[in-house]
């Protein structure tokens, strides 16, 4: 990932980690069960784990705008298009119309991943030439960096897949129009890669309507009824309670990806297309979208893949698109585990157990100095880990996309120590907490809804 540190997002549907340690350790697989009695060693705890750090080195350089403005810009663009048509006249040219968005990298990302997905299903065709007018050359180079990283992870066995194309950024293309050449790779035998056939969609996933109902049930049960998210008051809208700070409530957009776990390209395409649609819809009004919950059921059984490579590609994708000021991406999964504090999981994850414990101890001290009659028992590390994990355990693997400007406003409204302490007590507190056993049963009920 880029070395420049981004602000840790805190959001209406979830909040992100802030610690930064880069030890690499193996992922363990948590289970839907109650915590063990062990306190300090997280190796046997199903609710906490050390995360490996998957780093994608993105190309560096100045982010030069390639915006197409005015008569002269339009004329130059037409000249560039004619040059490309002549230069690549024997190949399939895909010209993406210039984006009118304030964040053209988002539209470029959607076009990039969808083009790869489409060409991958027809690898026998001539090379495809993808043209991204108005997009900075650096954005295009970084998108290729992410794709190449995925190819390397297939080659070293970290992920499965059978890519059929390679991508190069044309060095002789017009400055204002990045030109990407998508061409067939040598045979899989020569590449010594995985032999799993490319699959656009999984044949075992559930109906999209059923998946949406499961996700809505979870939003109502955890975020609304239990008050885990103070800014979500229904299963259809989020961002409530911030009107006085200039933020209007908007729709929660539920989306579904049928991508198989061996086709991260298809998942990326689905995700970035939905992000582009969210930005186009705006944040408020009748059709305004406040946040996205995109479920990908084929990834439900592999938290290691979801929390690691998938979110590494998403995090790098936000940087490649220069969209840090527009969006944040947050990780949810049926087997979610709270970071144990021994490694830095990347953005998009729950705060670590040590951070949550510190906040709870601070809150406990504050309460002990008041005259409140109700006192709470200080929880063990495993109980704290469980309280963090249950805030992120959803019926399906889920990508939560939120608007960065709304998150910044919400940050000013909430108190982290108080909110997280209250949430953990509500979920697993010894006095009135629901408890991991019941929470597991309720989640399993949602997962089996038909």
Structure description:
The chain is an alpha/beta fold. It is 38% helix and 11% strand. The protein is built from twelve helices and eleven strands. The strands form three sheets. The chain has a five-stranded mixed sheet with strand order 6-7-8-11-9. Strand 7, helix 6 and strand 8 form a beta-alpha-beta unit. Helix 8 crosses helix 9 and helix 9 packs across helix 11. The longest helix is centred in the first third of the chain and has 19 residues. It is elongated and about 80 Å long. The two termini are 40 Å apart. The N terminus is likely disordered.
Summarize this structure briefly:
The protein is α/β, with parallel strands linked by helices and 450 residues long. The protein contains 12 helices and 11 strands.
Strand order of the largest sheet: 6-7-8-11-9
Secondary-structure element series: EHEHEHEEHHEEHEHEEHHEHHH
**β-strand number:** 11
Helical stretch tally: 12
**Parts with pLDDT < 50 across at least 5 consecutive residues:** 1-12, 14-39, 188-200
Summarize the main sheet.
5 strands, mixed
Counting copies of identical and different chains, the oligomeric state is single chain
Helix share bin: 25-40%
How much strand? Answer: 5-15%
Radius of gyration, in Å, reads 23 Å
* Structural class by secondary-structure content: alpha/beta
Net shape: elongated
The N- to C-terminal Cα distance equals 40 Å
Provide the residue-averaged pLDDT.
84
Key traits:
alpha/beta; 4-stranded mixed sheet; disordered N terminus
């Amino acid at each position: 990932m880029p070395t420049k540190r981004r602000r840790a997002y805190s959001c209406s549907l979830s909040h992100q980690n802030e610690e930064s340690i880069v030890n690499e350790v193996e992922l363990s697989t948590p289970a839907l069960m109650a915590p063990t009695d062990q306190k300090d060693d997280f190796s046997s705890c199903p609710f906490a784990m050390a995360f490996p750090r998957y780093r994608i080195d993105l190309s560096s350089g100045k982010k030069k705008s390639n915006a197409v403005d005015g008569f002269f810009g339009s004329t130059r663009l037409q000249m560039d298009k004619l040059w490309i048509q002549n230069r690549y006249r024997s190949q399939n040219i895909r010209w993406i119309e210039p984006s009118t968005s304030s964040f053209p990298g988002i539209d470029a990302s959607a076009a990039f991943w969808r083009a790869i997905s489409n060409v991958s299903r027809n690898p026998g065709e001539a090379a495809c030439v993808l043209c991204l007018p108005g997009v900075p050359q650096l954005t295009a180079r970084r998108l290729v960096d992410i794709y190449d990283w995925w190819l390397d992870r297939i080659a070293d066995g970290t992920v499965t897949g059978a890519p059929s194309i390679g991508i190069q950024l044309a060095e002789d293309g017009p400055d204002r129009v990045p030109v990407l050449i998508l061409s067939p790779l040598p045979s899989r035998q020569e590449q010594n890669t995985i032999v799993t056939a490319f699959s656009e969609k999984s044949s075992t996933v559930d109906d999209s309507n059923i998946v949406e109902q499961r996700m809505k049930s979870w939003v109502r049960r955890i975020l609304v009824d239990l008050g885990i998210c103070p800014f979500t008051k229904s299963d259809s809208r989020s961002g409530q309670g911030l009107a006085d700070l200039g933020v209007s409530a908007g729709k929660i957009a539920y989306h579904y990806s049928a991508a198989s776990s061996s086709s991260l390209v298809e998942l990326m395409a689905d995700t970035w297309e939905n992000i582009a649609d969210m930005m186009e819809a705006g944040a408020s009004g009748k059709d305004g979208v406040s946040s996205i919950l995109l479920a990908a059921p084929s990834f439900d059984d592999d938290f290691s893949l979801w929390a690691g490579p998938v979110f590494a590609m998403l995090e790098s994708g936000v940087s490649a698109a220069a969209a840090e000021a527009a969006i944040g991406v947050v990780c949810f999964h049926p087997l979610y585990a709270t970071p144990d504090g021994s490694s830095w999981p990347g953005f998009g994850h729950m705060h670590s157990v040590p951070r949550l414990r510190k906040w709870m101890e601070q809150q406990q001290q504050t309460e002990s100095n008041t005259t409140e009659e109700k006192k709470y028992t200080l929880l063990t590390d495993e109980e704290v880990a469980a309280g963090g994990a249950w805030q992120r355990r959803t019926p399906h693997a889920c990508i939560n996309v939120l608007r960065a400007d709304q998150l910044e406003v919400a940050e000013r409204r909430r108190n982290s120590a108080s909110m997280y302490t209250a949430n953990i007590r509500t979920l697993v507190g010894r006095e009135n907490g629901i408890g991991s056993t019941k929470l597991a049963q309720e989640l399993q009920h949602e997962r089996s809804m038909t």
